[in-house]
Design a protein that fits this description.
The complex is a heterodimer of chains A (476) and B (309).
Chain A (H helix, E strand, L loop, with lengths): L2 H8 L2 H17 L5 H10 L4 H16 L17 H13 L12 H10 L3 H8 L3 H16 L5 E4 H7 L1 H7 L11 H9 L4 E5 L9 E3 L2 H5 L6 E6 L4 E6 L11 E2 L2 E6 L4 E10 L4 E3 L1 E6 L4 E10 L2 E4 L2 E4 L5 E10 L4 E10 L5 E10 L4 E10 L6 E11 L5 E10 L4 E11 L2 H8 L5 H12 L1 H4 L4 H16 L4
Parallel strand pairs in A: 2-4, 3-5, 4-7, 5-8, 6-9, 7-10, 8-11, 9-12, 10-13, 11-14, 12-15, 13-15, 14-16, 15-17, 16-18, 17-19, 18-20
Antiparallel strand pairs in A: 1-2
Helix pairs in contact in A: 2-5, 3-4, 4-11, 9-10, 13-14, 14-16
Chain B lengths: L1 E12 L6 E11 L3 E5 L6 H9 L4 E12 L16 E3 L5 H6 L2 E4 L11 H20 L2 H17 L17 H14 L17 H15 L3 E5 L7 H18 L2 E5 L13 E6 L2 E6 L1 H10 L2 H10 L1
Parallel strand pairs in B: 3-8, 3-9, 6-7, 7-8
Antiparallel strand pairs in B: 1-2, 1-4, 4-5, 9-10
The chains are: A alpha/beta (476), B alpha/beta (309).
Chain lengths: 476, 309
Amino acid sequence: MSSDQDHLKETDTEARFEFKKEEKSAFEAEKGLTEETVRVISEDKDEPEWMLQRRLRALKQFQEMPMPEGWPGAPDLSEVDIEDIVPYIRPDIETRGGAESWEDLPEEIQDTFDKLGIPEAEKNALSGVGAQYESEIVYQNMQERWEEKGVIFCDMDKAVQEHEDLVKEHFMTKCVPPSDNKFAALHGAVWSGGSFVYIPEDTTVEMPVQAYFRMNSEGMGQFEHTLIIAEDNSEVHYIEGCSAPKYSAFNLHSGGVEVFVGENAHVQYSTVQNWSKNTYNLNTKRAICEADGTMEWVSGSMGSKATMLYPSTVLKGPGATDNHITIAMAGEGQDIDTGAKVYHNAPETKSTIESKSIAKDGGRTNYRGLVHIADGAENSSTSVECDALMFDNESTSDTMPYMEIQESKVDVAHEATVGKIGDEDVFYLQSRGLDDDDAKQMIVAGFIEPITEELPIEYAVELNRLIELEMEGSLG
Amino acid sequence: MAVLEINNLHAEVAEEDGETILQGVNLEVESGEIHALMGPNGSGKSTTAKIIAGHPAYKVTDGEVLIHLEDDEFGEDFEIPEDLRTWNLLDLEPNERAALGIFLGFQYPAEIEGVTMVNFLRTALNAKLEEREELFEDEDEEAESEGGDTNEDAAGYDTSPMEGNVEEGEIGVAEFQEILQEKMEQLDMDERFASRYLNAGFSGGEKKQNEVLQAAILEPSIAVLDEIDSGLDIDRLQDVSNGINALRDEQGAGILQITHYQRILDYVEPDHVHVMLDGQIAKSGGPELAEQLEDEGYDWVREEAYEAA
């Protein structure tokens, strides 16, 4: 350990804070993500040594791995300069509470809150101002209700301290190792915040576990980690984020999600996200599903400049099931590359993927999927359905479904449709009294209905409203 | 009471060197009347219907399509100012035409996945009522109302984000359910229709029935029904016909019934029958004209038209 680190440990909090401040300019001058940065993050969180070591290993992997290259049609990431990431990490930690005040938020985001009709108090909470308080209340309520059953729902940083054994066993070990991809490695090195959910055996959490304010209250959601452990015969529906746009000073978001679905357990992970339009959204989300377990991914991806997100499930035990429902929307200057990955590694496993995308004003959407059926995974079945809706001739939509089938006794179905929003459909609705905008909106709302029906009503409503706003072009 | 008046309507397909389809159509339909518009394929019947409703695929090169409204057309509470009783539909968007009481029943209605009948119809009805208010609003009121809207928006939702904005004068979900149920019973439709997606997976007959249901709910002054009888079995034909008669008898709508066949006219008895040939109305008459066409075809009308020219 360096003498700097020793020095850090010995000083009191205030001095450490000072140290950080002093060091800040030095960090900024430095090129690339360094070991020192990682040590400071870990130190700042008072993490156990093993976590620091994991971070450092991840960092090493990050430094050694190439950027995702050679993917056909992959979004252009040339603007994502790793050298630029480092200076951003420091202010991330310091401005834990998010934006200082409502006025500091970009106009675009303020405008969105206004248009969503969210009252001032809620806006403040969602934008990070005073959200710490609010979010603790959320956690508190959950705990009181479920803690006697052994359910845990808390902040990921806190979980490292209070549920160390569980985290140590599961955190980026078997599900999403840092070696998975360059951004998973980056995530492993600099992760911060996120949710930890633990559902003991034979426990059903009837209400959705929601991290509604969390992302924003942390103010450091750029590298948040979500770890969900559902033991055998348990059931939980976890909902992440909210439709409220997350303000970010940074241009890179690289989250990590790990879900462990025990035997005969059932986990639904739903997310509705809307990123600011300067964000590169590069995530790794994966579930491991034991025998007869069920994993369901429901996601709405909005905003961002470029998104690369392919939630994946490993169907490890016989009879395991995976369902994906995803929706993506790309407007001007946006490249939304999303899809799903499923590994059928056991017999009698089932998967369905339903992907919906909407492209307008020259935006691009792409479905990129991989279904792998291993040799011996007999009597497994998969069904992939991708529908794209386009508003104009400038927008583009691609479908890239890869199928790796190594077993012959399987049932594989794939179906893709790409359609332009039909003039006849719009005219039909107009002739019934809807104006042009409302008609298109109704068609889009219908198009994404399979997603919205899976979500609790408030998410569905806000997803619809967000799409409404996007379609007005009012988010710029 | 409303009158649809088509004068000297010329139109072509809205693309470069588009084919000319209508060559001087003249027609007048009053509310309370049933007109049958007949003629061979390609004579311009459907085009006429679509132009009345404002389909963007056609370009009008000459003529006008007017609607004249009496002051009590939209109920006793809705007084139409004297200077706003006549409108040229060609200047208006399709939804504005709908707000003035025009309804087009489609031969091939669109299928819209994910949009339930009940949601669609309520939205359409509310949109129509709102558009109507806007069309007839005088400028002072308009300024006032816009101010009001802004305040409403700024206040956000009153109770919960889930309920959405219920604006004054809108028909709510519960109230609409009742209206829908009643109309569906009248048309002998299964109540499960309400929760199905708009026309998605409907049989041909169900689609036609659905068009009539929509007309019944939107209460048009003038309903243009484009081959609403095609592809119907006899039972369904009777249901649809009953619906059309009810539109006229109970709501006082004027009907322009486009059809190839005499068959539906046995159930929906027209006051006037028009024969369209080559983009013009070549002959008009009473119900007996339809019977004669059934027996003798269109050739004799064509010959007559040549002779006259």
